[in-house]
Design a protein that fits this description.
3 strands; three-stranded antiparallel beta sheet; flat; 61% helix
Amino acid sequence: MLLDWQTQAESPTIPANPAVHQPRSEVREPQKPGGFRPISSPFNPARSPPNAPTTAPVPATRIYAPHPRLPLRIPCHLSFTRLHCLRIGLDWHLATMASARNNAAPDWEVLRSLHRLARDLSAAEAPAPFLRAVFAAVSRRARLLAAAFDDLLLCGVVAAGGVLPRSASLCLREVLLVLQRFKALVSDCAARSRMRLLLQSDEVAARARELQHDLATLLDLLPVADLGLADDVADLLALASRQCRRAAAAEQELKASVLALIQEVEREIVPERERLEGILEAVGINDPACCSDEVETLEREIGDRVAERWTSSMIALVGLLRYAKCVLFSAATPRQLDSKVDIDDDGAEPPSPPPDFRCPISLDLMLDPVVAASGQTYDRESITRWFGSGKSTCPKTGQVLANLELVPNKGLKNLISRWCRQNGIAVDGCEPGKAEPAPVVAANKAALEAARMTASFLVKKLSASFSPEATKRVVHEIRQLAKSGSDSRAFIGEAGAAALLLPLLRSEDSVLQLNAVTALLNLSILEANKKRIMHAEGAVEALCHVMGSGATWRAKENAAATVLSLAAVHTYRRRLGRNPRVVESVVQLARTGPSSTKKDALAALLCLSSERENVGKLVEAGAAEAALSAISEEEAAAAVLESLAKRGGAEAIVNVDGAVARLVAEMRRGTEWSRECAAAALVLLCRRAGAAAVTQVMAVSGVECAIWELMGTGTDRAQRKAASLGRACRRWAAAASAASAEQSTECPTSGAAPPAMVAS
């Protein structure tokens, strides 16, 4: 709040509030030696209504400066409360603020906060080299203020519990607000990507200049004489005020150079190495790790739409940074977190996600966490399936939801992504075999050309690499580029990367093998690349080698996921199913692999079993036994059994000891989808295998309760399947009773079995 004794307006006085108003002559301080002089024109109250926005232009105000040679201009971006006080000199408003000050923090705490903030700002570093001048100026002003506040505290002007003169106290509190805004600006800039900072450097410099002008105004209005400061301290404050009016300008040449480079890439002009190196050095990107972090930060900012005006340029810069990383740092050695293998040969499980990262419905790691109307967080796929079954309640709390809207939980998603990177767990943007989600923002021509240049450079470097370390670095970069989007996958495939990656699947280097198979997995998501991989010589055999003899479980898992992705095409599904080595390898992974590996192997089995001619080979290889062994761990296991039973494998499943009992148990305790699949599998077994299956179903204790529960709480399809299963059981029971009565009447010693009953 600004000071009443320093403001006076020539406009008519607003009617006073009798509760707080005092005559102007009683409120004003005595006139200072040397007098005051007006430095601006009178204020016209008709030109600024009371509800005017804070950024609206305001007329000049007659201000009485403390010194005849110190001109004082009030910037029009100050808040309306301060401007109102400056223009009209509202004594009643100051009295109200003084009353509120009694309930606020004491003056000595305000001084300590000022001193602490000034010290923090004096130590703040520029987030990028091109903003060094702007932040160095802020740091110098903060050092001057820190010295002044330190002297004010040491002199004991305000002891604990003491108070400052009202005008000084209000002014210092306004200074505290300005310094807090400075600190917020510093923190915000530190969190931004360097390239976004460069594009918005004008705005950052303008904001810093605006805050410095506010600070200069407040320092001019501070009643230094009332504080009893020494002359040298008063000189420091005056020096700080003068320096605040000479704010540094933003860097313009570097920004223009970057924008010109983007335009050249749009015209398919390959950037010169020396020029790229100079730009990255000026921005502060000097190593591959920093370049990778910059790309990740830029991608997150693009997804969050934090700078709509510069989104197109930011997308282009992501592609340019990837290209620069490969060219300047020669596809440098990946960071430890990028190549970390967290699953060893001894079959150890991957690290378990924290409970807060698991979906309450599926209990799996959330890939796309969203918040429901109840405030609970779920994975989007699981909660969407829940709503799709006709439910409108919160799965965790049971409350009826006011609406079915889902809000992305971006904070949790960033934490999950960080945890995955730290533990070496790959979370790709889309699942194998599924369509890739539409990007938030479409890539522009500059980004596409940069991706094409990067793909061509990497594939040429891979074909010419003779050093194992160089090959490892290039394959890692191809893996990362193939993960970035469908356009990059297309460019890599067109450059011929698939044929060069396949021989590396037999490498004894675990990191190289993992990167090669993961790169193939990322490439296989694109339909055109599926054809390139399947038509490459030795592709299927190489994938079988990794699934059977891979150096790590992660490599085996990604090989199974690649089979799943390739099997999404009908023709390739038949071809893969006819290969006994593929079937045996996938079944073995489903039987012996860790949890994440089983999940991908079962998904591959489910896809292969959708082709009738593959079911015989799958049953012979033990797919039913493998699925039954995992039925309590993975919900896809029940779906595999359903698919096998539907296409000719029902009798093989019934002949497995305990198969029906496990399906009934899954129907009672499984997830929503697994309960549905288990009920469907039991109905198919009863229809295909007849009395042998129904007899086993009826022999399971509590099967009637499980059927009734599923009919009341399951999905629509689960309820239909449970009803069919119940009818089959009732018909079998009725037939058994009739047969028993007939036997007791006609031939009491006969041991004939009840006739086979098939569910309708």
